[in-house]
Amino acid sequence: MKCSALRAIFTLCLILGNTTARAEFEVRKEKFDNGVVSKEYYFKDKQLVEERHFDISGRFSGWSRYSYLENGHTVRINLSVEKEDYGQITSKQELSNLDSKNRETESSILFRKWIYSDEAPRKLLFIERYETQAPFRVNGKDYENEKGELLSSITFSYASNDRHEKPTGFIEVTPDGKVKTRFSMYEPYDLVQRLRSLGKSEEEIRLHKRHRENPNKFLIGIIDSGFDYNHEALVTKWWNNPDDPMDGKDNDGNGWVDDNFGWEQVKNVGLPTESSTAFQRDDRPLSHGTHVAHIAIGDLMNAALVGFAGDYTQASYIDKISAFIKKHKIRIVNLSIGFPPDTKDLLGLRDGIKAYRRMIDENPETLFVVAAGNESLNIDDRKNRQYPASFEQPNVLKVGALDAPDFSKVTPANAKIAEFSNYGHKTVDILAPGTKVVAASIGGGLISHSGTSMATPFMVHEAAKVWMELPHLTAVQIRQLFIETAQVMTPEAPVLSKGYADTKAALLKGRIDFLKKSPAREEGPNCWNSSTLLAGLSQGVHHTFGSEFAFLIESPLCKPVTFDQLEAGDIVAFRRVDQKGRLLPAAFLSEVHGYTYLKEKKGFTKNGVMPTATYQEQTTEEILNFYRSSEGRNCKINGLDRKDCILKEFAYRCTDIETYMSTQGGLNIFEKDVLLRLSSLEKHLQAYYLHGQEIKFDKDSMLKKIQSDITVLKSQGSKEFVTDYFEMRAHSLDYILKK
Which stretch is the leader sequence (predicted)? Predict the structure, then answer.
């Protein structure tokens, strides 16, 4: 290799093959028995400044440089000899007490280690700092920008001097001393105090406390490394076990003290805390469990987390978790874990794998959502199996990773399976976002991680959202619903569903199937509220009041679309206009009919308010002709001149208010609370209309409280559209209840 070709890379120009380099360097060589040079050492002023290693064929195989600090420490820099990143730094250490060839001795001390990325171009990730006295563990990390300027420093804390002990906490500060993140495995959980420290008002705290104490929440179990339960994004999301309050006693007699929202086997206390297993290896303190939990729960209001941390390969521990799942009816369990088959039990995993199989078998009404794994393998092949992803029970949903951080920009045409994701037409069911997914980081703030470990809780979140809306479905049916409604990718993904999860499609199909099997028993439900329900604008079918339908489709929640743009789930409305194309004013003059568009020019509708009018699929032409045929008579009945009573089709694409408001800062806790109660009342009315179920609570008082709270929202500065939307739904409910 010519020296001139390397001048841009090297700061020191050396010529291989010569017995000497420039006069100021002394070169010493070692050789293999065949005479090929094995090592070259370059000295300057009697100090080793560079060494190069060669294999027995003479190929350049290793490269290190040395510099010397005033404090007597040596800095060793290892450089790449590979073509794609030749000359780039792969690692760097600051040490003392090395021998004459800069080899480490028993008295050597490691002070700092620079950690670089594994792939070209090599980038500095962080700098590890080490204890200079026994037990010589990592005691901190420094983070720098591209200019080498310090951004922040983390300092770890330990409970003992055991060299193999993992950190129990850390604090991260900026150069000016500002605390950026903080975590301790032994920090007590106190919801009220934590919310106060976050600056929440006493009204907000009372509301969060009331929500956490709700005994009827949808439960999501997470078996993982542990959790930063005081993280701002998670502190209000934990389940409150009514059978075992946090009082230092085993109130429910299951052998676990204070398992108020989960359990950690290792510490043998009831609060599952974030594991510190990989603190020393990742560019940030590992936040696997915390990250997974945040993705799973997200912004779900009526769901709660139950965490299990510790040795999740131990069979006896898994059996206890299984019993806990069954007793408390945990609906979904996230398993972002994986084990090789270990048929000879070389790793001691066989009993643990069997325990997971028992857990799934013993909880058929629980959906277990499982990571496919990150080895880029086809796990249909028996030699590539891993567990629990290779289990075949029908209540196991196995998830691979999409090459995307979320669904926002994913289409069937641009969607790709992540390079690292395992796959299999038989053993992997579906894909979900799993690349650079942003969620909670241990100690505070957010961080991005990639892996099927992220795709799995993403799928948990979507499954929980659908299951809470369709609680009559079983775990097996929820799994099948997502597989059947998945967006098929181009080219097809190498998984059972051939694509990625489509929550909108799953909700649409699930709601339609429900309505088909649930003809109304009472007069009232009509085409309009079935359309708004299927579009996510309301949460139950019931009698429509006044111009509610017009308000919704003309609100910011809906936007007009042309008929060549129609997608499944869009609303098609028949509305009357005058000869100048202006909508007629009164609700029941301008709103004739509405239906939900389905694929292949079909629509879903209910033709009338009587119980005899069933929910059904019809062709769009049949629906239009049915209403067009009676228009002349209807216009005459309403006293309208036929020239100013023209039936016209309009198409709208709508979204629910939470999704819409997420682009504008989101709903606050008080707005979410009102929405939750409105939705609950609508669902109770739906049960009355469809199944004749009696409403046993004081619905009038509940509605009055909702209306009062809407007035409070106005005084607190909620957006006018939000309070108008709530008022319209409340007015409709008020009309129905009085009727």
Answer: 1-23
